[in-house]
Write a structure and sequence with these properties.
single chain; mainly beta; Porin; 22-stranded antiparallel β-barrel; 1 helix; 22 strands; about 5% helix
């Protein structure tokens, strides 16, 4: 499997202890911010925010957004325009000490002026926690997330809003022990266990089918020699995943890295997979791969930039694996991955969320994000997932431009139907002044094949301004457009234009 596990850092040591292998979920359209014009993080060149060093702090937040849409019902004909008023309350909580925690959450109500049947409450939250039972040896880790998403790339609104038939609410959390230690001068040891749950809800009671809720048990262990031995590194991984829908996966893998030149390491892997779910999948097979890693040298951030490619066999067929981690200057960053894994959709979502929380800490600020994104379509299927993702960012002193793309090819088991989708976009941010920022973006979604939703294409754009009135108040305004087309006979074509303005106050 390629989910709960460990990854050696590019320097050969563990990167932050236990690391989930990058496995971004091949599921629903991306989550959006509570307020469309409020940037997730300050643009390049903006003043750095003050760091709260108190042991415990709560920062309340209130806000109000007014939105106009020319297609509240997202219909192809007889479009209905409407105004949507969104009051919001939220808070950011931080705890420091032997127990550390960080939580950001919002609750809001969308009130439609004309289509009142669409009105309703919603919210989002994301948090992490850690308790050091024995410092630098044993801890209890926890992560939690609540978000709104769309079950398919077709039927999503131009900006986040309650009332669309395609919308569902997803919640997931996990908790468990995490042990790290060193075996004298031989190797680093990393062991963790996780209990997780994933929940789905459809607040609009539409015809959209929901995946089943799931409870998950997972564990992983790794022994890594790191850079102790000149010229080579050995990594041994073992992991298990089980859910309450009879999915079980066991994996044992041995990896060998051999330094043949200062810039090149050869990679060899061998192991065994045992993946079962009655009536769906039954795999008992060896795995192997071979490849190479090229080290570009130490980047300005002090970490090696690398690219690696491997080819081998897994799950009974030829398989590729690749990773790209590149920072060639203070301005240019790139991160990319390709992998194959067999998982139920519920497990994919939980794995992807954990991956995103780790990436937000480990990646450079220009690449990391605190906002969890889901890409593609959500279903209740166990699938062989082949996924590639790429992010490129070029950041100047006061502006940045980024390209992101995710390709998913999920073979749904045991029907052998495919869900193929591409989610991509370009984002631009500019700090016009210390208190004024501009943001724009273009998005393109394409579902090439899906047995439930068919094929569809969606593209759109957005522009917005953000103004800091003072140190506690922020205003934003902007415009968004989206066009969606179902690419089959008698398919719908839906367009939406949106204008919005928002203001927030942080205490």
């Amino acid at each position: 499997m390629q989910s709960l596990g460990f990854r050696a850092s590019r320097a050969g040591k563990f990167a932050g202890g236990c690391v989930f292998l990058l496995a971004m979920a091949s599921t629903g359209a991306s989550a959006q911010s509570v307020f469309s014009g409020i940037l997730e993080r300050p643009p390049a060149g903006a003043p750095a925010p003050l760091i709260d060093t108190r042991d415990f702090s709560i920062s309340p937040l209130v806000g109000l957004q007014e939105t106009f849409t020319d297609n509240a019902l997202l219909t192809s004909t007889d479009k209905k325009a409407d105004f949507i008023t969104r009051p919001m309350v939220g808070a950011e909580v931080n705890v420091h000490g032997p127990f550390t925690a960080s939580l950001v959450g919002h609750a809001y109500y969308d009130a439609y002026a004309s289509q009142s049947q669409l009105s309703g409450f919603s919210g989002d939250a994301q948090g992490t926690a850690n308790y050091a039972v024995i410092p630098e040896f044993l801890s209890i880790d926890a992560n939690a997330m609540l978000m709104n998403a769309s079950v398919s790339t077709f039927g999503t609104p131009a900006i986040n809003r309650v009332g669309t038939a395609n919308q569902i609410t997803i919640a997931t959390y996990d908790i468990g022990p995490h042990l790290t230690t060193t075996l004298d001068d031989f190797a680093d040891v990393d062991v963790l266990g996780r209990f997780a749950q994933v929940f789905f809800d459809n607040p609009n009671a539409s015809s959209v089918g929901l995946p089943n809720n799931a409870a998950i048990l997972a564990g992983a262990a790794a022994i890594d020699t790191g850079a102790r031995y000149r010229g080579y590194e050995l990594v041994t991984n073992a992991q298990v995943e089980r859910d309450d829908h009879n999915f079980e996966a066991y994996n044992l893998q041995q990896s060998l890295y051999v330094q043949i030149f200062p810039e090149i390491r050869l990679i060899g892997r061998g192991g065994y997979d045992n993946v079962t779910q009655p009536g769906i999948v039954n795999i008992h097979d060896a795995l192997w791969s071979g490849g190479a890693e090229y080290i570009f040298g130490v980047n300005p951030g002090g970490e090696n930039s690398t690219i690696s490619v491997e080819y081998g066999a897994r799950f009974g067929h030829a398989a590729w694996r690749g990773d790209l981690h590149l920072q060639i200057s203070q301005e240019f960053f790139a991160e990319g991955h390709y992998f194959e894994a067999i998982q139920p959709n519920q497990l994919q979502i939980n794995t992807a969320f954990n991956t995103s929380t780790i990436a937000a800490i480990q990646l450079p600020p220009q690449l990391s994000t605190t906002q969890f994104l889901i890409n593609g379509n959500i279903d209740n299927q166990t699938a062989l997932n082949k996924q590639g993702d790429l992010a490129l960012v070029y950041a100047w002193e006061t502006q940045s431009i980024g390209l992101r793309a995710t390709w998913n090819d999920r073979m749904l088991l045991p029907s052998n139907n495919h869900d193929r989708s591409l989610v991509s976009g370009v984002d631009y941010q500019r700090s016009i002044a210390p208190d004024l920022a501009f943001a724009a973006g273009i998005d393109y979604y394409h579902t090439f094949a899906n047995p439930f939703f068919g094929s569809s294409e969606s593209y759109g754009g957005r522009v917005g301004l953000q103004y800091d009135i003072n140190s506690t108040m922020r205003a934003a305004a902007g415009y968004a457009y989206q066009r969606q087309v179902q690419l089959f006979t008698n398919g719908q074509s839906v367009t939406e234009n949106v204008l919005y303005a928002a203001i927030t106050r942080r205490f």
